[in-house]
User: Which sequence fits this backbone?
């Protein structure tokens, strides 16, 4: 209960008057609003019945993307003329809390997954709290996003960890599939015919290796974000043998027994710690697989990581994959982000699912 209340407070306090959620209010690099982090946070607020907060976030994204309409259109025009795209042609992965792009700070901006994630989250919100005014006001931004994803989904782009620009990432494609299919449920005419199925069949043909989903096309590694393939994006069901094999590899290779979940075995960001939010995603997966006791065990570990101030970090550094790579990050950016809103959001999501089990 204490963590529940602290999480709500941290999220409320981290929501700007604009509606944007800051990724972390204290970490030097995370004073911005990411579509990815923000959507999970809004989804968590929907899960605990705080729909006003989620609504404010989606309205903010809608307005922000519309304010960047000329940016989208420039890109669409270049695509129509088959002109090569520059890095600055893509839409960013994060905005200032007022909805601007911070051109003074370099960031690994071309990441498509957040654009699929926000579509998915918005559809969940609309299904939970039918709101025709909100939908009408967001339709133009949804349309721009769908057009953006239709044009670019086959392009290599940074993954959800803002790495590997030259690869095509399975969890990114899963987010696009999930977002586009969810929007199609709300308004079928907004999504080009068969686009979600094209993405799904691309994933099944190119993103499976040795019977499990793989981190990116050409890789044989697993990444914990592969859980998204089924939970929640449903490219396949949780019972699909390829998904089950993926969960098993995640358990064997990047889940520390008795501890948390790493992003991937070769991670060196802050030495590669155990991520709270990924541990929660594995818990969510266990709930869907009918393993609530395993989910509770992971949640107990998460609770044991709360700082005396009631905060959860992005990652826990006690058992690093590569401790020699920790100091360089601390010198560059300071200690690990804490609190991270996305970590707190995941706790609220999993708690709400566990309550339904009880
Ligand atoms: C993570 C991203 C996240 C961002 C803000 C990065 O280090 O890799 O997934 O969106 O931090 O929390």
Assistant:
């Amino acid at each position: 209960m204490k963590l529940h209340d602290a999480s709500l407070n941290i999220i409320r306090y981290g929501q700007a008057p604009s509606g944007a959620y800051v990724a972390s209010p204290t970490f030097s690099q995370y004073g911005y609003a990411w579509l990815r982090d923000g959507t999970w946070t809004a989804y968590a607020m929907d899960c605990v019945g705080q729909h006003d907060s989620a609504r404010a976030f989606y309205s903010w994204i809608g307005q922000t993307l519309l304010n960047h309409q000329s940016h989208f259109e420039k890109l669409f025009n270049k695509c129509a003329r088959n002109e090569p795209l520059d890095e600055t042609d893509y839409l960013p992965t994060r905005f200032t809390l007022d909805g601007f792009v911070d051109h003074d700070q370099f960031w690994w901006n071309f990441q498509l997954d957040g654009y699929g994630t926000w579509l998915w989250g918005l559809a969940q919100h609309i299904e939970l709290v039918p709101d025709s005014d909100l939908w009408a006001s967001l339709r133009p931004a949804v349309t721009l996003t769908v057009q953006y994803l239709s044009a670019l989904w086959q392009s290599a782009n940074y993954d959800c960890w803002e790495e590997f620009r030259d690869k095509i990432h399975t969890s990114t494609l899963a987010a696009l599939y999930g977002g586009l299919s969810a929007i199609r449920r709300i308004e079928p005419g907004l999504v080009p015919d068969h686009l979600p199925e094209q993405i799904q069949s691309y994933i099944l043909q190119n993103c499976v290796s040795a019977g499990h989903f793989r981190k990116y096309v050409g890789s044989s590694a697993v990444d914990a974000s592969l859980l998204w393939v089924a939970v929640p994006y449903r490219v396949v069901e949780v019972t699909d043998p390829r998904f089950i094999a993926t969960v098993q590899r995640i358990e064997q290779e990047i889940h520390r027994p008795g501890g948390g979940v790493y992003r991937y075995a070769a991670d060196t960001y802050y030495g590669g710690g155990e991520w709270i939010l990924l541990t929660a995603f594995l818990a969510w997966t266990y709930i869907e697989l009918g393993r609530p006791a395993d989910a509770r065990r992971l949640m107990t570990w998460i609770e044991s990581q709360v700082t005396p101030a009631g905060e959860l970090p992005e990652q826990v550094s006690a058992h690093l994959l590569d401790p020699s790579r920790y100091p360089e990050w601390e010198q560059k950016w300071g200690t690990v982000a804490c609190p991270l809103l996305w970590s707190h959001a995941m706790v609220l999501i999993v708690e709400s699912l566990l309550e339904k089990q009880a």
